[in-house]
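Lab notes, practical 5.
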Amino acid sequence: MLKNTFCHLPGFGEKLEAYLWTKGVTTWDGVLDSSFVPVRKRTQPFRDFIAESAKRLQNSDVNWFAGFLPVNEHWRMFGEFSRSVAYLDIETNGLAGRSGYITTISLYDGERVHYYVKGRNLDKFTSDIKKFKLLVTYNGKCFDVPFIESQFRIKLNQAHIDLRHVLASLGFTGGLKGCEKSLGIDRDELSGLDGYFAVLLWNDFQRTRSSLTLDTLLAYNIQDAVSLETLMVTAYNLKLKKTPFQNTHNISLPAQPKLPFKADTETIRSVMKKNYRYSAKLKDFRLP
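Output from the prediction step:
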């Protein structure tokens, strides 16, 4: 999609880009000498910027494009950089400020699931995340990334697509789980659980040291990260419908990977019974 993008060019807005598309001008090469581009814009800096765009794409410099694309068009980076994406989600102890801390992190790269647990391997995350050029999160710009940067005292400099805003622009709201439900993503025994329940699972694990409780927490956290790929591809394809490139750039929905952990339904039921927020509607959850 980036090779068909003009709205990152100086003086080019989305309206001019859409107009050029209707006139059959769809590539950087094509726009250089197009008579549909206003004469005042066909300057040497304009030509230099297109040449720079081609160079940056060849060098896989996604951050450069993130710096010039309007934020609401960052979804366009996904097609060219989908093989260097970290689908990222964290869980915390539910507290803010100095009392808050990350309990688990899940990172999915489209093939393998990587997971990190406080007190075990959490610090390994900081070296692993450097391997990726593009982050995909849900509400990560407000929550996950600032939390990570604060706790580890690092800066995540990767380009970042926050699906909360992309999906909202397509009419999907209600948080990550609400978007999943609207798009037909099923969580099986994890259906209906939320971030607060992840906090309860961590607290229960701290008390009991039960491996089943930790497995359930990781199953929940990893499902969040893995679902991001399906949501990203779905959002990308829906966005393409508003362009001339739906038939040529559409991406097939990914197969679901084999997950390393499975939620334990007895653990879920036990933790629910201890908390009124869930015990009062326990019958509404899909548990065997």
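Observations recorded by the TA: The beta strands are 85-92, 102-108, 113-117, 134-137, 159-162. The CA atoms of residues 56 and 64 lie 7 Å apart.
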